[in-house]
């Protein structure tokens, strides 16, 4: 392939990564924004989403599309409920002290990961996508008669990958509408701005916290259900989404949803493109160093809101 | 105060004597374990200086442990150093990286400090994987028995190894005890208790914190280098997040800000994981449960609870 079609392929693959990353990271950003909790177990909720999606779809053998639809509706709810339970039983009792909650979520990380290892096992298992048509993509070329389209060999994407991008866009728009237009969103934003004042105005802050923690984990699980037909479910798959979500949330300005989505696009696309042309490990080294340096040299811009 | 001092010397002296005497009656398996535990407890003591006494929670200490491990290992394989010189190189590498990371990371505080240290450690882990042709990546490399000689003593011999681990533990223990009873140590504790007040009293808080990071990194690197040379293996898994979480776990369990906490925590956790890994491959489950329970019910750890209830004089 020429450079042009190759770049287009890398961009499309990057867009799938970016879409899933935007969903996962907005869950992390929501939890940090409203609760000021850094949820280190976020990647494990993602992993749990993928593993449960495999489990749920395995009931519906022969009806892959129906099983997948069922998974996408139920799995995020299950994971969200589990996270809300963890919030009520653990985080609430720590009074959301920032350092102690990080240590506790590290503990939750290992508990979720290892219980999955004990029950689901160490294998990676695939989930059948509900539809998976291969779509060839055209590219322009210069001929004697002017510009014309042709179909280079290998330049294609599946309909499922396009659907993932579309679904993530719709979900993020819905989240945005809930946060800005609904009463629930108003309560969350009020809690985010001033916990005590929100409490004084009769907002059930504790329930909002449990809901937000559940919603954040649910978004990660939803992202995982979407990606699992492409990626396979494995008990260690939570590490990468956690690291990338951290990177995205920090670069996007902690807690800000539009910033997070923008950063997810930037990181997802550049990760896809850099990984195609250079080593994926090198891409990750650069990204982690970038994040550390952003935090060191621009702390007020990214963490500044915490002191308000 | 003198009565307290006598109790302090008595208790800690007794622990050090027990560690010395243990080798004569422990069966071979536990004898080997205890040597390992003493090196890992040295790592935990290095971590405790920063977390327990200065109040800085790092999530990236595996970077310093691995700097010692690889500084020693690569010193041997790439530069052909002897075991003693290689360990020194490891400690210098760890303290040097600590000096650099400390200068950068200390510009942040609280949650940001935790994430910055985590990110630097992750970058370090990935760099080790990236230069796989030298570091052998995840697979790691074995240090041959012929290279594990210091002053004619074979470090792979169990008795020699136990003595080496014991002397490293002793050295770190005595140096840290001395540091903490010095002016420098008192300022660190003052920073932990109330950073603004320490600043008001005219101490250059940033410089003291930086000193604590360098010392903590140096002790962690010493433990890493010793671990490599005593047990003959260098691998990237020692640089992974898990090895940043372990010292936090050991120190929290034993009691942050106590001298004996790191040793007690390491012994307990080592045997908990050792016993459970006989039953299941998911032995890190124990680590997770202990972490959650500690933060919920005993944030002071074992020695911390002892201090609150019985031994108010415990350092």
Give an account of the 3D structure.
- The complex is a heterodimer of chains A (308) and B (315).
- Chain A is built from 12 helices and 4 strands.
- Chain A is mostly helical and 308 residues long.
- Chain A has one domain: ABC transporter involved in vitamin B12 uptake, BtuC (Orthogonal Bundle), CATH 1.10.3470.
- In chain A, a hairpin with a 2-residue loop joins β2 and β3.
- In chain A, α5 crosses α6.
- The termini of chain A are far apart.
- The C terminus of chain A is likely disordered.
- With 315 residues, chain B is mainly α.
- Chain B has one domain: ABC transporter involved in vitamin B12 uptake, BtuC (Orthogonal Bundle).
- Chain B is built from 14 helices and 4 strands.
- In chain B, the strands form 2 sheets. A two-stranded antiparallel ribbon of chain B has the order 1-4. In chain B, strands 2-3 form a two-stranded antiparallel sheet.
- In chain B, α2 packs across α11 and α7 crosses α8.
- The two termini of chain B are 12 Å apart.
- Chains A and B meet through α4, α9 and α11 of A and α5, α11 and α13 of B.
Largest sheet of chain B: 2 strands, antiparallel
Quaternary structure state of the chains depicted:
heterodimer
Outline the low-pLDDT stretches of chain B: none
CATH hierarchy class name of chain A: Mainly Alpha
Q: Which class best fits the helix and strand makeup of chain B?
A: mainly alpha
User: Briefly, what CATH class of chain B?
Assistant: Mainly Alpha
Individual helix count of chain A: 12
Shape descriptor of chain A reads globular
Mean pLDDT of chain B: 85
The strand line-up of the biggest sheet of chain B is 1-4
Structural class, judged by helices and strands of chain A?
Answer: mainly alpha
Residue share in helices of chain B?
A: over 70%
What is CATH's topology name of chain B?
A: ABC transporter involved in vitamin B12 uptake, BtuC
State the end-to-end CA separation of chain A. Answer: 53 Å
**Integer-rounded radius of gyration of chain B:** 19 Å
């Amino acid at each position: 392939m020429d450079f042009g079609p190759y770049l287009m392929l890398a961009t499309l693959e990057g867009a799938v990564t970016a879409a899933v990353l935007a969903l996962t990271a907005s869950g992390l950003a929501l939890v940090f924004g409203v609760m000021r909790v850094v949820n280190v177990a976020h990647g494990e909720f993602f992993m749990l989403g993928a593993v449960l999606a495999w489990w749920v779809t395995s009931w519906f053998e022969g009806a892959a599309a129906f099983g997948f639809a069922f998974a996408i509706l139920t799995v995020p709810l299950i994971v969200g409920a589990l996270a809300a339970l963890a919030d009520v039983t653990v985080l609430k009792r720590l009074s959301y002290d920032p350092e102690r909650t990080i240590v506790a979520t590290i503990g939750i990380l290992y508990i979720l990961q290892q219980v999955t290892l004990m029950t689901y096992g160490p294998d990676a298992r695939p989930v059948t996508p509900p539809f998976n048509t291969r779509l060839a993509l055209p590219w322009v070329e210069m001929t004697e008669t002017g510009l014309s389209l042709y179909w280079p060999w290998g330049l294609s994407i599946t309909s499922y990958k396009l659907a993932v991008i579309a679904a993530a866009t719709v979900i993020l728009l819905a989240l945005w509408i809930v946060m800005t237009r609904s009463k629930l969103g108003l309560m969350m934003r009020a809690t985010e701005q001033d916990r005590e004042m929100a409490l004084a105005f009769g907002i059930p802050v504790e329930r909002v916290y449990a809901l937000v923690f559940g919603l954040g984990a649910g978004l990660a699980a939803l992202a995982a259900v979407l990606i699992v037909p492409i990626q396979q479910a494995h008990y260690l798959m939570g590490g990468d989404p956690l690291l990338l979500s951290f990177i995205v949330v920090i670069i996007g300005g902690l807690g800000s949803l539009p910033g997070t989505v923008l950063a997810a696009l930037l990181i997802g696309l550049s990760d896809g493109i850099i990984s195609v042309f250079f080593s994926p490990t090198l891409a990750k080294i650069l990204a982690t160093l970038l994040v550390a340096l952003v935090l060191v040299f621009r702390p007020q811009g990214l963490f500044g809101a915490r002191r308000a | 105060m003198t009565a307290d001092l006598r109790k302090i010397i008595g208790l800690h002296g007794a622990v050090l004597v027990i560690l010395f005497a243990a080798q004569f009656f422990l069966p071979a398996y536990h004898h080997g374990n205890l040597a390992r535990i003493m090196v890992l407890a040295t790592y935990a003591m290095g971590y405790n200086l920063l977390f327990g006494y200065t109040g800085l929670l790092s999530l990236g200490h595996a970077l310093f442990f691995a700097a010692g491990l690889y500084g020693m290992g690569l010193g041997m394989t790439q530069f052909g150093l002897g075991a003693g010189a290689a360990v020194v190189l490891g400690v210098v590498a760890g303290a040097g990286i600590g000096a650099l990371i400390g200068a950068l990371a200390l510009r942040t505080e609280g949650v940001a400090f935790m994430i910055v240290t985590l990110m630097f450690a992750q970058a370090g882990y990935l760099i080790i994987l990236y230069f796989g042709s030298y570091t052998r990546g995840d697979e790691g490399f074995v240090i041959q028995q012929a290279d594990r000689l210091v002053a004619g003593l074979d470090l792979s011999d169990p008795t020699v190894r136990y003595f080496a681990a014991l002397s490293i533990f002793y050295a770190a223990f005595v140096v840290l005890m001395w540091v903490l009873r010095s002016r420098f140590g008192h300022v660190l504790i003052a920073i932990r208790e109330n950073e603004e007040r320490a600043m008001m009293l005219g101490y250059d808080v940033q410089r003291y914190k930086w000193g604590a990071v360098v010392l903590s990194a140096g002790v962690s690197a010493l433990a890493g280098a010793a671990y490599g040379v005593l047990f003959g293996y260098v691998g990237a898994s020692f640089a992974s997040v898990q090895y940043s979480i372990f010292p936090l776990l050991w120190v929290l369990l034993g009691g942050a800000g106590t001298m004996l906490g790191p040793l007690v925590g390491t012994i307990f956790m080592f045997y908990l994981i050792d016993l459970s890994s006989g039953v299941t491959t998911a032995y890190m489950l124990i680590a997770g449960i202990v972490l959650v329970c500690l933060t919920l019910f005993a944030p002071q750890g074992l020695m911390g609870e002892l201090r609150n209830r019985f031994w108010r004089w415990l350092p």
